[in-house]
Amino acid sequence: MASQILPLELIDRCIGSRLWVIMKNEREFVGTLLGFDDYVNIVLEDVIEYENTAQGQKKTKLAHTLLNGSNIAIASFRL
Amino acid sequence: MTDARAEPPTEVSPPPPPPPVQLTGSPTDFLKGVVGKRVKVRLVSGVDYQGVLSCLDGFMNIALEQTEEHVNGVVTNKYGDAFIRGNNVLYISALEAL
Amino acid sequence: MDVSGTGIQEPFDLIRLSLSERVFVKLRGDRELSGILHAYDGHMNLIMSDVEETIMIVDTESAMAGQGVVNVAKRKMEMLFVRGDSVILVSPPSRT
């Protein structure tokens, strides 16, 4: 057994709370976690997207959003 | 019939789950709910496609109708239909309530 | 789920219905193709004929100055195999 608790079980405990997702490419999302699957595709609501551009940081508000797991690097949360 | 596996005693079997009144929020449920709705599809490159989601598959390949391509907030193209290969997709965001 | 009565149940149906038609294809690396679609597979590998390729070449200096595309190169090819992993978008001819 690799560990007593699986990484995805921890994320599962975050459902309903705010999650900070850092993508592989200078892009971040903060939103309320609604759900996810085994590929770590993530569904968020009340989302803010942060983009780092040459003009500085750009914020975009999004409603219900599905993030493609293949671009996700890190998810940060509080338990 | 004596095979217990075929027909487990009723007192042991868990109660049937209540019918899902509301979708649970998993990616699959999100995708079921968002078909037919207006969505924004953002690619990894930063290009956006806004349109009505006709359908999608497990690779996140997407078919859109009445599609507008947005680059830096400017409409750069319009397509009646568009197939988007799933590996390019960063996110799918609903533009209307599910 | 057939939303608009067009017979599309999955994304690949859109491609299937475009066989033998002229399609527009957007590829990675700022390339665009317009040609007749002859074959495709699950990877989105494509065979196209009578293709016109458009390559956008952005001049980095003028891009810094906030200008748009500087150079557009075009060429024609009789028959093409397109590897699926570079495909971003396929748009069939309008069905309306």
Label this structure with key terms.
heterotrimer; A: 79 residues; mainly beta; 6-stranded antiparallel sheet; globular; B: 98 residues; 5-stranded antiparallel sheet; 43% strand; disordered N terminus; Sm_dom_euk/arc (chain B)
What would you say this structure looks like, in words?
Chain C: Its main location: nucleus. Chain C: InterPro entries: Lsm3 (IPR034105), LSM_dom_sf (IPR010920), Sm (IPR047575), Sm-like_LSM3 (IPR040002), Sm_dom_euk/arc (IPR001163). Chain C: It is found in: Nucleus. Chain C: This is LSM complex subunit LSM3. The complex is a heterotrimer of chains A (79), B (98) and C (96). Chain A has 79 residues and is mostly beta strands. Chain A is built from 1 helix and 6 strands. In chain A, strands 1, 2, 3, 4, 5 and 6 form a 6-stranded antiparallel sheet that branches. Chain B is mainly β. Chain B contains 1 helix and 5 strands, in the order αβββββ. Chain B has a 5-stranded antiparallel sheet with strand order 4-3-2-1-5, with no helix packed on it. The radius of gyration of chain B is 20 Å and the shape is elongated. Chain B starts with 26 loop residues before the first helix and ends with a strand. The relative contact order of chain B is 0.20. The N terminus of chain B is likely disordered. Chain C is mostly beta strands and 96 residues long. Chain C has 2 helices and 5 strands; from the N terminus they run H-E-E-E-H-E-E. In chain C, strand 2 and strand 3 form a beta hairpin. The two termini of chain C are 20 Å apart. The interface between B and C is medium-sized, with 25 and 27 residues.
